[in-house]
Automatic annotation (TrEMBL):
This is Ribosomal RNA small subunit methyltransferase J. It comes from the Bacteria. The lineage of its organism: Bacteria, Bacillati, Bacillota, Bacilli, Bacillales. Gene3D superfamilies: Vaccinia Virus protein VP39 (3.40.50.150). Keywords: Methyltransferase, Transferase, Ubiquinone. One of its GO terms (molecular function) is rRNA (guanine-N2-)-methyltransferase activity. It holds the Pfam family SAM_MT.
Amino acid sequence: MIVTTGGRYNEITLQKAKDIAGRYELEFIMRKKRSVKELKERYDDDILVVGNDELSISTISNDGSVKYHPNFSMVRAKRLLNNEHDALVEAAELKAGMSFLDCTMGLGADSVIAAMTVGPAGQVTALEHSFILYLLTKEGLVSYNANNDSINRAMRSVEALYVNHEEYLKRLPDNSFDIVYFDPMFGEEISNSQSLRTITSVTDTETLSEIAIEEAKRVASKKVVLKDHFRSSRFEQFGFKQQIRKTSKVHYGVISTNVQVD
């Protein structure tokens, strides 16, 4: 992957682009008024564009670009601040001080909601096996300004890791997180979900395995939670109790582990 700046940039943005390239051991290239398409053709590689206010990646296999944006999580976050309900929080029974392992980070929306709920005394770790999404989301979480201190603090508190979730789960001790969470790519399209359509081309295609679920049940001291399309066979396949939401195509499934830890 090549790192460059937006077409118009300032010294702060230039340094930020160079810093990102250095941290991830990527090559930095000056833009020199060239288009992203020209850069992809010249270097035959994906291009990370660091703009003044946003990050985006244009892949070699796709003409479009994937931008970091917290999307609907901002609406959900503001609802939480107004003491309104959130489906994930209710399904996982998340509370302040709890630990939450997001095995399928994506653009990090659910991790941000979890971080807001568990607060500074809690812990949110998010795993992503697509390097493109990992880099985009990790950098977005530390730099995006939501214009709200509570949301910004939650975003900064998420620990993002570039790793395969099954392998990571195998290395964890028993009962090391209260909640283990999966939000795999849906088998059926949610037509009004722009964020899902946007990231499909760069998302790792690994699916949930029986091994991952068994490891999750060992690691989670309270619950394993699955978010999926309401018609998904994975709820029954892996033994999740599906929570019916009549007004939504997205349902949650729960496996209660109910381990009491002294």
